[in-house]
Amino acid sequence: MSSNDLSLPAPRRDLRVLFGVALAAAACIAPLFLGNYGLHALIIALIFLLPAHGLNLLVGYTGLLSLAQAAFFGIGAYTSGLMAVRFGTPFYLNFLAAGLLAGAVALPLGIPALRLRATSFVMCTLGFVIIGQAIAKNWIGLTRGDMGLSGIPKPYFALGPASFTVSGTVSFYYLVLAIAVIATVAVYLIVRSAAGRNMIAIRENETLAESVGIPTWRYKLVVFMISAAFAGLGGSIYAHYLTVVSPLTFQMYYSTTMLIIVLGGGAGTISGVVFGSLLFVGLSEALRIAPEVRMIAYGLCLLALVFWFPKGFAPLMDRFWSFLKERK
Amino acid sequence: MLTMIAEQIVNGIVSGSVYAIVAVGMTMIFGVLRAINFAHGEYYMLGTFGAWFAIEYLELPYPVAIVIGVAATAVIAVVVGQFVMQRIVGAPPETGVLATLGIALVLQNTVILVFGGGYKFFSGGYIEPVSIFGFTLAEQRVLIIIVCMLVFVGLELMVTYSRFGKAMRAVSQNIECCAVVGIDVPQVALRTFILGACLAALSGVLTAPVNVSVYGGMGEIITFKTLPVIIMGGLGNVRGTFFAAMILGIAESLVATYVGLQFRDTVGFATLMLVLMWRPHGLFSMQARF
Amino acid sequence: MTHTLDRRAFCIAMGLIGLRAASTDARAEDGTIRLGIVAPMSGPNSRYGSFSLRGAQLAAKEINDAGGIGGRKITIISGDSQGTPVEGVSATRRLIDLDKADFIIGDVSSSVTLALQPVVEDAGVLLLNAASSNPKITYGAGAGGFKWTFRNYPTDENRALVVIQYAAEKKGFTKFAVLSVDTDYGRAAVEFTKKYLPRFKGQILTEDYYKEGEVDFRSVLAKIRDSGAQAIIMYGLADTTPIVARQMIEVGVAGKIPLIGNAEFNTESTIKAAPKALEGAIEAAAWLPAWDSPKSKAFVEKFKAEYHGEMPNNHAYVHWETVRLLAKAIEAAGSGDRAKVRDALSKIKYDSAMGEVTFDDHNQARLPMILLEIEGGKPVIKGAYSAEIDYPR
Lengths: 328, 290, 393
Description:
The complex is a heterotrimer. By secondary structure, chain A is mostly helical. Chain A has a single domain (34-314), classed as ABC transporter involved in vitamin B12 uptake, BtuC, CATH 1.10.3470. Chain A has 14 helices and four strands. Chain C has two domains: 29-154 and 292-362, Response regulator (Rossmann fold), CATH 3.40.50.2300; 157-285 and 372-385, Rossmann fold, CATH 3.40.50.2300. In chain C, 44% of the residues lie in helices and 19% in strands. Chains in contact: A-B, A-C, B-C. The interface between A and C is large, with 38 and 42 residues.
């Protein structure tokens, strides 16, 4: 897999920090020069960034290929939506509940699933998505099935006497941006810690990792749960943005989109995932200029990605950094 | 009551035969290429479209249409195999997943682009009902069961006795040693892939008369139904796949009748997950591989 | 070396696509009336999208050929919702922001329409719904909150009542089996049916929902055959009906247990596929080609002439009619200003092919449901029924 953030020499790291700051600044003033449509595309990219981060921890850092993200995304969306509609709770409660519930559900699912070998594990995770959709469709008492939950209110925050509602695309964009930044920082901290190094050890050679005393089983389970929690958080924002949640949220297409973001951006790198999210949502929207061939072009891009950029776009970025470094 | 259950079991065997033919192709492809072919259902769809086209536009009779459907798919499989599938051999699993997903998107949407997205009506085939042991079945369904038996017997023979079959087994067991013994691995991979795709196409063409509707997106559902079958049967295990397919077909039929049709599609994955919890290696041991 | 060349070419191509996509269209300032059509152009419901778009395009063509509205022509831009809310919202956002659409007609699927409502409300763009049947859309429109949403299509509540009433009163059916499509449409219609069943002393013996793309109904039909049901309640997809009909013959149900509900039973090709199974079918539709009014017949002829002899379906008609309705509203408002058009629309008295159309205080058009029965292989119209909707307080 590609290099991770720990092995950078000092000057490159400075450049990256500078670039990161510039990017953050650009993101903050984006609403000034992007219309509602552009902001919408960015919001979708940022919503998908959260489950992608989770998946990256699983695929990129621990070496487990999973298609289950859509299932936890859906659980998060429904949790948040149901709480908002039934109890009228403020957004941050719905948000946290979504993440916690998704992570909690991942525990009983992960224990048997992680015993399986690679291919069976992938199929099992796919099974979670399909079963999730079936439950959402048929447990009408809870989810209203296909009729879906609609009219999910805009996110509102209530802290004691003060409360405000996030309404309008621009405010929503800032909300999502803030959450995405916090999430990215959180993932960065996880990866940089000793735990992160252990995860990489498991990915590189599980047997060897066990032999030096890393409790691989526990790590895999915990990472699976954290990954699920991230997906649940993403689902929560999704529910509040679209105001409608239906069993269609549990679809394999979302799982594969997240996988494409991670693998296309560069599994095992954080900047890769961020870049991948922007790139692939951007690509999907940009291809609307040719609606009839949109999905065909998307498929061809996938093939190009797999064969020409097997490690994603991260190595390209690395080359870009070293190019800049030489210029200095 | 008993006749009711018997009837449902017969229905199950019919749909099981369809799944079996498709699944055996997918499992062989996995055995040799080590890749889950997410585009497998699309070859089923292509076979059906080929036959439909032959009947609608070329006005050929149904038996000829069967040949054309399979042949058209074979041609496409050659192209896909050469440019994509061969490169998957030896690559990490993510490559196979994404590449086959990409192929699926391209195939599905190209067909929709060329023929339009609406459902087409398949007008060929033997749909007259015939009475067997007191059950009425369309003649076509009996044909499907017979073909399924023939396919599996044929595959058994091929894999055990023919040169190609032995080469397939060799590649699925140990790729490095194949080079030592002089087996052309990319060729074997390509041919296995074409064989698998043609089997899927055959299944599609045979089922089209009773399923009536032909549309670009029909392959996706087949892929989803087949994935649990090949895992339960044991990846690369031809005999196991047959039994897993039959079990799934019957289970689906019984669930559709006694629980509700809306749960039918979940039977596959639900059964798979139960099986995996209990026997992580699949229902049938990996010894009988190929 | 070629490898690197390919990759560079790929990156450049990506860059170009990005630039092209981000550029706003200069033709936004061309003075035409810009109408966006959001419908499922791909995916399992693409048939509906294709008919909807063609119906709308036919209407636009007719109006433009006659000189446009006050001299201004209509430009139609289509957006693909794929039948899912996310895509629908994306497509609509794009239509509003990039393509500068002033009016949107969309969607077919109710769940997409529900997701579109807040979007158009925030943007102040008029949303005319022509084909979704979930009542919730108009519970929340007009006086219910979303002022920019209008619906020109009858609701499922009306439909379910009309069907079950006919089946019970005119045919004497009391035992039913349900076999409907597993979407919001199928489920909601059955829920409404259950609401009215006790009134007609009916009961449901078995209840099954089929997934879009399902092809194997033998098991369910055998179960229904042995259950003693007198009719099958089917609210489903037009494309699946021929499959079910064929298998009804196979299983021995055809001619014995009729289909009631709505799944384009009246389409000629469907009846031809399995005439025995569809004999005696009862359907409540918003429209069908056999409707005997001069405007309707004229529409059918024009559609066939324009599209190589293909018969229009329900969705083609409603979109055609809705474009004309919008044109009339713009004329009445005297300008393309969105707010003025909206007001004109709420007060309009429009002469459609189905009779006069007015909107109630929830922006719902008062439209009848046509009840028909298939007799001798042809749809025979038994009547048209309207109902005033009981809005929740």
